[in-house]
Amino acid sequence: MVKSKKVGQSTYISELAIHGIQEKKGNDIVRLDLRNLNSSVTDYFVICHADSSTQVKAIANSIEDEIFKATQTEPWRKEGLEYGEWILLDYVDVVIHVFRTDKREFYGVEELWGDAEIKSYKSA
Protein backbone atom coordinates (compact mmCIF):
# COMPACT_ATOMS: atom_id res chain seq x y z
CA MET A 1 0.00 0.00 0.00
CA VAL A 2 2.82 2.42 0.78
CA LYS A 3 4.32 1.81 -2.68
CA SER A 4 1.13 2.87 -4.48
CA LYS A 5 0.93 6.08 -2.43
CA LYS A 6 4.54 6.87 -3.35
CA VAL A 7 3.93 6.17 -7.03
CA GLY A 8 0.77 8.28 -6.91
CA GLN A 9 2.73 11.13 -5.34
CA SER A 10 5.51 10.91 -7.95
CA THR A 11 2.93 10.94 -10.76
CA TYR A 12 1.30 14.00 -9.21
CA ILE A 13 4.65 15.81 -8.85
CA SER A 14 5.52 15.03 -12.48
CA GLU A 15 2.15 16.47 -13.57
CA LEU A 16 2.75 19.62 -11.52
CA ALA A 17 6.18 19.97 -13.15
CA ILE A 18 4.65 19.64 -16.61
CA HIS A 19 2.12 22.34 -15.75
CA GLY A 20 4.93 24.61 -14.56
CA ILE A 21 6.75 24.05 -17.85
CA GLN A 22 3.62 24.79 -19.86
CA GLU A 23 3.08 28.04 -17.94
CA LYS A 24 6.41 29.34 -19.27
CA LYS A 25 6.05 27.88 -22.78
CA GLY A 26 8.70 25.16 -22.51
CA ASN A 27 9.31 23.23 -25.73
CA ASP A 28 9.04 19.52 -26.54
CA ILE A 29 7.87 18.37 -23.11
CA VAL A 30 8.24 14.65 -22.41
CA ARG A 31 7.78 12.45 -19.36
CA LEU A 32 9.76 9.24 -19.19
CA ASP A 33 8.16 6.60 -16.98
CA LEU A 34 11.08 4.68 -15.46
CA ARG A 35 9.11 2.74 -12.85
CA ASN A 36 9.28 -0.59 -14.70
CA LEU A 37 13.00 -0.44 -15.50
CA ASN A 38 15.34 -2.45 -13.29
CA SER A 39 18.14 0.11 -13.51
CA SER A 40 15.85 3.03 -12.70
CA VAL A 41 17.09 5.66 -10.29
CA THR A 42 13.74 7.48 -10.06
CA ASP A 43 10.09 7.06 -11.08
CA TYR A 44 10.00 9.78 -13.74
CA PHE A 45 12.18 12.08 -15.76
CA VAL A 46 10.45 15.18 -17.07
CA ILE A 47 12.38 16.90 -19.86
CA CYS A 48 11.91 20.09 -21.86
CA HIS A 49 13.93 22.83 -23.48
CA ALA A 50 13.88 26.56 -24.20
CA ASP A 51 15.81 28.79 -26.57
CA SER A 52 17.41 31.09 -24.00
CA SER A 53 19.02 30.76 -20.57
CA THR A 54 16.55 33.36 -19.28
CA GLN A 55 13.61 31.17 -20.30
CA VAL A 56 15.30 28.03 -18.91
CA LYS A 57 15.60 29.75 -15.51
CA ALA A 58 11.99 31.02 -15.70
CA ILE A 59 10.75 27.48 -16.41
CA ALA A 60 12.73 26.05 -13.49
CA ASN A 61 11.30 28.72 -11.16
CA SER A 62 7.77 28.01 -12.42
CA ILE A 63 8.21 24.27 -11.79
CA GLU A 64 9.43 24.90 -8.25
CA ASP A 65 6.53 27.29 -7.59
CA GLU A 66 3.88 24.85 -8.89
CA ILE A 67 5.21 21.92 -6.87
CA PHE A 68 5.69 23.97 -3.71
CA LYS A 69 2.20 25.53 -3.89
CA ALA A 70 0.59 22.09 -4.15
CA THR A 71 2.83 19.98 -1.89
CA GLN A 72 5.05 22.32 0.18
CA THR A 73 7.96 20.29 -1.19
CA GLU A 74 11.31 21.80 -2.14
CA PRO A 75 13.69 19.98 -4.48
CA TRP A 76 16.09 17.66 -2.68
CA ARG A 77 18.78 19.02 -4.97
CA LYS A 78 19.05 21.52 -7.81
CA GLU A 79 21.90 22.20 -10.17
CA GLY A 80 22.67 24.48 -13.09
CA LEU A 81 20.83 27.61 -11.98
CA GLU A 82 23.90 29.82 -12.37
CA TYR A 83 24.26 29.41 -16.13
CA GLY A 84 20.80 28.27 -17.16
CA GLU A 85 22.00 25.82 -19.82
CA TRP A 86 20.81 22.64 -18.10
CA ILE A 87 18.90 22.96 -14.85
CA LEU A 88 18.21 19.80 -12.92
CA LEU A 89 15.54 19.74 -10.20
CA ASP A 90 15.69 16.53 -8.18
CA TYR A 91 12.58 15.63 -6.20
CA VAL A 92 13.98 12.11 -5.57
CA ASP A 93 11.11 10.22 -7.25
CA VAL A 94 10.87 12.80 -10.06
CA VAL A 95 13.87 14.40 -11.74
CA ILE A 96 13.22 17.37 -14.02
CA HIS A 97 15.66 18.44 -16.73
CA VAL A 98 15.25 21.90 -18.26
CA PHE A 99 17.69 22.36 -21.12
CA ARG A 100 18.67 25.17 -23.42
CA THR A 101 17.84 23.81 -26.89
CA ASP A 102 21.41 23.12 -28.03
CA LYS A 103 22.32 21.37 -24.76
CA ARG A 104 19.33 19.04 -24.98
CA GLU A 105 20.37 17.97 -28.47
CA PHE A 106 23.97 17.48 -27.34
CA TYR A 107 23.25 15.36 -24.25
CA GLY A 108 20.34 13.30 -25.63
CA VAL A 109 19.01 12.22 -22.23
CA GLU A 110 15.94 10.57 -23.77
CA GLU A 111 18.13 8.20 -25.81
CA LEU A 112 19.90 7.01 -22.64
CA TRP A 113 16.57 5.72 -21.33
CA GLY A 114 15.22 4.25 -24.57
CA ASP A 115 13.34 1.46 -22.77
CA ALA A 116 11.21 3.94 -20.82
CA GLU A 117 7.61 4.63 -21.69
CA ILE A 118 7.62 8.15 -23.14
CA LYS A 119 4.65 10.50 -23.13
CA SER A 120 4.76 13.85 -24.94
CA TYR A 121 2.89 16.98 -23.84
CA LYS A 122 1.92 20.13 -25.68
CA SER A 123 3.25 23.49 -24.67
CA ALA A 124 0.52 25.75 -23.35
Automatic annotation (TrEMBL):
Pfam families: RsfS (PF02410). InterPro entries: Iojap/RsfS/C7orf30 (IPR004394), NT_sf (IPR043519). It is found in: Cytoplasm. The keyword Repressor applies. Transmembrane segments: none annotated. Its main location: cytoplasm. Keywords: Cytoplasm, Repressor, Translation regulation. Gene3D superfamilies: Beta Polymerase, domain 2. Coiled coil: none annotated. Functions as a ribosomal silencing factor. Interacts with ribosomal protein uL14 (rplN), blocking formation of intersubunit bridge B8. Prevents association of the 30S and 50S ribosomal subunits and the formation of functional ribosomes, thus repressing translation. HAMAP family: Iojap_RsfS. NCBIfam families: rsfS_iojap_ybeB. Belongs to the Iojap/RsfS family. Interacts with ribosomal protein uL14 (rplN). This is Ribosomal silencing factor RsfS. It comes from Mucilaginibacter dorajii.
